[in-house]
Amino acid sequence: MMAAAILTAAPAGAPHAQEVRQPGAPQSGPQSGHIALLLPLNAGALGRHADMVRQGFLAAAQAQALPLPVRVYPTTDDDGAVLAAYEQAVEGGARLVVGPLTRGNVTALAKNATLPVTTLALNQPDAKTWPARLVVFTLNTEAEARQVAQLAFRDGRRRTLTVSDESALSRRIQRAFAEELQRQGGDVAADFRYSVDAQRLALIRQEATPKLADSVFLALDTASARAVRPQIDAALPVYATSQANPGRGDPLARRDLEGVRFVDMPWLLSPQHTAVMVYPRPRTDALDLERLYAFGIDAARLAQLLLRDRRDVTLDGVTGALRMTRDGQFTRELTAAQFEDGNLKVLSDPSP
User: Fold this and answer.
1) How far apart, in Å, are the Cα atoms of 5 and each of 29, 35, 67, 99?
2) Shortest CA distance to 120 belongs to which of 189, 66, 43, 201?
3) Which of 53, 260, 270, 292 could be stapled to 296 by a disulfide with Cβ–Cβ 3.0 to 4.6 Å?
4) Which of 48-57, 128-137, 339-348 holds the top average pLDDT?
5) Rounded distance, CA 278 to CA 318, Å?
6) HSE-up of 174 (CA within 13 Å, CB side)?
């Protein structure tokens, strides 16, 4: 199969677009069928993150030899600009649109009663229902927290102490974990607020013992988790989401997080995973950017499957085992791992 062309389309009113072709790629005119990649590449600081999604998507497009050329539509994160670029893509012959990337932009697009082509949105709309042709694929941290609750429950944990901070993300993670644990049949013994205040840390050290709970969940990032972990009784199992993962380059952090069980994508935890080995690594050591690169890879692989108009799509992805639900949303099962003696031990790999 011939490699797909990679084109860059300017938004309406912008200068003439520059086209980048691969040897042997099919010719592409202004109304030709293509895959439209709609990303906020012109949205200031957000543009850097969007570009990592773009890089991952194009790496997979080349490796998988997509059946249609890919045309990139750079936008800002303004709803009007995004909707205009979407319309431009459809009028230009897009057979499938991948994007938008931000929650607000996806919400704006989802307000349409119908969509002219299948659209793989890269974030969750603020709506309970959305158009039939809108398919949702996200890196949802709350979904991770629910998986960690399921992992803890399978490990026999029934009464968990949670530690969160004042940030909105931490509170959402804690709430998702607590709701899922309770749905499974467990309970949250208490929720402690983390801060650098010595009295707060002393309270956690006093209460985080087997007398109060049989486990601890940290709804915290790496730095905060490292501060809290030593305050917890060594007899208590500790759980966290990928937010606590310090990555490959910090052995001291891994030792500070001794015993913590967490979930993350195969791209970061299982380098020998069959799918992971296929793709080149991005030129970055930042975990958030690596995750977005992997996100772009799986978005391209899902696009290839969605072009076949399948409604039962599953994928052994680099971001997890992906499965499309009846409401047009992809669930993502992650790899479970644990820190032991400063090393990373994979506990279980997901299966689609």
Assistant:
1) 12, 10, 10, 19
2) 66
3) 53
4) 48-57
5) 10
6) 24
